[in-house]
Amino acid sequence: MKSKKVKVYNYPGILEDAAFNLTRITITFDSSITLKTVGHVTNAKSLLSVLASRITNGTEVEIVANGKDEEEAVKCVSEYIQSGCSEEFVKNFLK
Predict the structure, then answer these.
(1) pTM of the prediction?
(2) How far apart are CA 62 and CA 74, in angstroms?
(3) Is pLDDT above 90 for 48?
(4) What kind of fold does domain 2-86 have according to CATH?
């Protein structure tokens, strides 16, 4: 199991497009990936779960991955969040 804490710097947060792109990234990994915030544990591979968690700008998120590609998964998800949920990051990742 690997984990990393990051702060969301994307206004308004990981909502709508950012949530969709996050799930597009996470489903490429074999590991289970969760996002932990105060009061929520979210399946990062489920768009509905990510949307329901309402992760807003300024929220600290712990990314937790468990599986054979867990290190790469945590690295990639943390980079996406730290990029401000950049569309460019997603385009480059999904090439």
Answers:
(1) 0.95
(2) 10
(3) yes
(4) Histidine-containing Protein; Chain: A; (3.30.1340)
